[in-house]
TrEMBL record:
UniProt-listed SMART domains: BRO1
Low complexity composition-biased segments: 1-13
Domain BRO1: 23-431, 427-681
Renumbered residue ranges of the record's region Disordered: 1-22
Position of the signal peptide: none
Protein species of origin: Arachis hypogaea (Peanut)
UniProt superkingdom: Eukaryota
The name this protein goes by in its record: BRO1 domain-containing protein
GO terms of biological process kind: protein transport to vacuole involved in ubiquitin-dependent protein catabolic process via the multivesicular body sorting pathway
CC annotations in GO: endosome
Length: 702
């Protein structure tokens, strides 16, 4: 271990010791008074639109009211449950936002009075904000509270373990990004208590960013890498932590009112910030002076996620793997409407007849749906190309992976990940079933892909006596197959099938209706997204030509052209994609040229696709029915999805590891084990339970 690392990990030998190394700061949530939302909003919808429209959206209004009531009155909620409730409530708020614009100008509407108290010092002269019909205040306060809860999750995590440090770091990062959104997007339109000012929003963003960076630097020191690149990254983490602590400190002490406000809350805060900024300034200077800047990509998957022989960190690295993979993806706004209609994992649903349903925040999946894909026998959708799905041989992943954990680590480590391995094995069997509906198969593939991302650090399993062999057949020529130990073949094949399923869903839709065309557009957007991800995964999978980079790029271009083709005729411009401004013919022509050049030119892929593209280089013209009030709610839901996925601000406010604390997912962290969470997700897809003896299996059912 280097002298610098020894100095920090042994404070007694450090002339510049880290002050309060075990202390992290968290903030309380804002308190509010109860308010009735359901009755006045439902009456407004019935009066402004119609009673039938009110019936269509009353489930959303009921869940909105329940979320707020639970947020105010229930004192028994754990921190992950508080986070789930607040995020659910925020989505509902975004859906009803247009109603508050209408209610402010409606003389017959009942006033809705939102009262919020300052989180730090409610006894202050301006410690209470009370405003009529101000959904901006409500949304800002809710985002503040989500950030506050994330900060409490970080502070309460066991940071003496690798998994606990990872959870704390991601929780503080999430808190920082919520306060960044509050600072950049929300508080500028709100006149409220001091905690909802630009100054406090920015200072809290800097504080929690600094704490996340401090934990990151601690983890880098424990990893004790000798490479020049890792030493440089560690020095940069110290420098970034120093800058954020400095900014948080300067913002507070530079404003006398803010200084007094913080002192009223906790007199040690400013001293703590001062000590931290001084410590990290010195450490950053020393570390940066001892290393040379490195010109190298900031991330290497092997350095981030490769499993070593440290059994204590196994679960943390499995969790870190899925977090790292999600960090590499662009925000996924596509497929939002598709999830609302078809996915059993989405608590917000569009039911048959156009009724919107918002299931309660504390109701676990699966969420029932009665909406069938609106199909048509007409030729209106004949220009959509339904791509064939790849086939695979059955495989028992559970035994080979569990034996590997026992061989490399111990029986106890194997038991700690048993729930994940059983779920993984079940999902792989289910995804091969031909009798599953398209929506169920899509849900299964998405869950399976997330599990694959978690186990990716296990590969290549060079020390295993029986590593799994993945066998996949060419989608366009089933006589050809690829057989490998390479997990990237498995991941690439799953991504291909996700894209292909999107094309099947789109083909089955009735394009003469708004509902059918919207589902088709979103299904193709979804397919385009998966093929775009596949272009990156295909680089690591040497397989049949359907998984080649040239083929996946061509398929992505075909889907993009079909999306633009449909969007040309869709009456709601918010669905316009980046390709919509490009002439549809040009997009189809680009895909056609890709199919007739290079390695695809002499293959069956070319003969199947090029002829199809030649026949559809045209634009469709379709008539539509009028829209109704549910359209406004859907716009709000898309706004919430955009806000939470970080479309304009970097991703991170919903890191996957915090979702593993929720009871709404199929896998859950409990007592630092990865367990199958049967209370949070119905993993009996198609009616079959998980195989094996569950008498000793760790499952959270509380």
């Amino acid at each position: 271990m280097s002298n610098n690392n020894q100095r920090l990990l042994n404070p007694n030998s450090n002339p510049n010791p880290n002050p309060n190394p075990e202390r992290v700061l968290a903030i309380p949530v804002k308190k509010t008074d109860p308010v009735e939302l359901y009755r006045p909003l439902r009456e407004l919808v019935a009066r402004k639109y119609s009673e039938s429209d009110a019936e269509k959206v009353e489930s959303v209004l009921e869940t909105l009211n329940k979320c707020r009531s639970d947020m105010v009155e229930r004192g028994d909620l754990s921190l992950p449950m508080q986070r789930d409730c607040l995020i659910h409530y925020f989505k509902c708020l975004c859906m009803v936002e247009p109603l508050f614009i209408a209610i402010s100008s409606d003389a017959d509407s009942e006033l809705i009075n939102f009262v919020w108290y300052d989180a730090f010092y409610s006894e202050h002269n301006n410690g209470v904000s009370s405003q009529h019909n101000s959904i901006q205040l409500e949304m800002a306060a809710v985002v503040f509270n989500i950030g506050a809860v994330c900060s409490q999750i970080g502070a309460s995590s066991d940071r003496t373990t690798a998994l606990g440090r990872h959870l704390a770091m991601d929780a503080f990062n999430a808190a920082a990004i919520f306060f960044l959104k509050l600072w950049k997007d929300l508080v500028k339109d709100v006149s409220a208590t001091l905690d909802l000012t630009l100054l406090f929003a920015e200072s809290l963003h800097c504080l929690f960013s600094a704490q996340a960076l401090e934990l990151k630097s601690q983890q880098q020191l424990k990893d004790n890498s000798s490479s020049a690149f890792e030493k440089y990254r560690c020095a940069v983490s110290f420098q970034s932590a120093s800058e954020h602590y400095q900014r948080a400190y300067d913002l507070i002490v530079g404003d006398s009112v803010a200084t007094e406000h913080v002192h009223k809350f906790d007199q040690t805060w400013i001293t703590h910030l001062h000590q931290k900024k001084e410590f990290f300034q010195v450490e950053a200077r020393q570390r940066l002076s001892s290393v040379q800047p490195i010109s190298q990509p900031l991330r290497s998957f092997s350095s981030i996620c490769a499993l070593d022989h440290d059994a204590e960190s196994v679960n943390e690295k499995l969790v870190r793997a899925i977090c790292w993979r999600v960090d590499q993806w662009m925000p996924k706004l596509e497929g939002v409407y598709l999830d609302l209609v078809l996915s059993e994992d989405s608590p917000f649903k569009i039911m048959d007849g156009g009724k919107l349903v918002a299931n309660p925040w504390d109701m676990p999946p699966p969420y029932p749906t009665n909406f069938a894909i609106p199909s048509s026998s007409s030729s209106s959708s004949s220009h959509i190309l339904a791509l064939p799905l790849k086939k695979s041989e059955p495989l028992d992943l559970y035994e080979s992976l569990r034996n590997y954990f026992v061989l490399k680590y111990s029986e106890s480590v194997a038991k700690s990940v048993e729930g994940l391995l059983e779920l993984l094995n079940k999902l792989r069997s289910e995804m091969l079933r031909d009798d599953l509906s398209l929506p169920l198969r899509r849900d299964c593939l998405i869950r399976y892909f997330k599990c694959l991302c978690m186990i990716e650090p296990l590969f290549p399993m060079t020390t295993s006596p029986n590593p799994p062999i993945f066998v996949w057949y060419n989608a366009f020529n089933p006589q050809e197959n690829s057989s490998q130990h390479n997990i990237h073949l498995e991941k690439a094949s799953v991504l291909f099938n996700l894209g292909a399923l999107g094309s099947h869903i789109a083909l089955s839709c009735d394009l003469t209706t708004i509902q059918g065309q919207r589902i088709a557009i979103d299904a193709l957007h979804d397919a385009s997204y998966w093929f775009l991800i596949l272009t990156h995964e295909a680089e690591k999978a040497s397989a049949t030509i359907d998984l080649s980079i040239s083929c996946t790029q061509m398929l992505h271009e075909i889907i993009s052209a079909q999306v633009a083709d449909l969007e040309c005729n869709f009456p709601h411009p918010r669905y316009a994609s980046v390709s919509a401004g490009c002439p549809v013919f040009v997009l189809y022509r680009k895909a056609f040229d890709m199919s007739t050049l290079g390695p695809l030119a002499e293959t069956r892929v070319q003969s199947l696709i090029a002829q199809h593209l030649l026949s559809i280089m045209r634009t469709c013209f379709i008539e539509f029915a009028p829209s109704d009030v549910t359209e406004q709610f859907l716009i709000g839901y898309c706004k919430a999805a955009q806000f939470l996925t970080g479309y304009r601000i970097p991703v991170g406010c919903q890191p996957p590891c915090l979702d593993l604390l929720s009871k709404a997912g199929p896998v859950m962290i409990k007592d630092e084990n990865l367990v199958a969470n049967l209370s949070g997700s119905d993993i009996r897809i198609g009616g079959d339970e998980l195989p094996g003896d569950h008498s000793n299996m760790a499952i959270d059912q509380n």
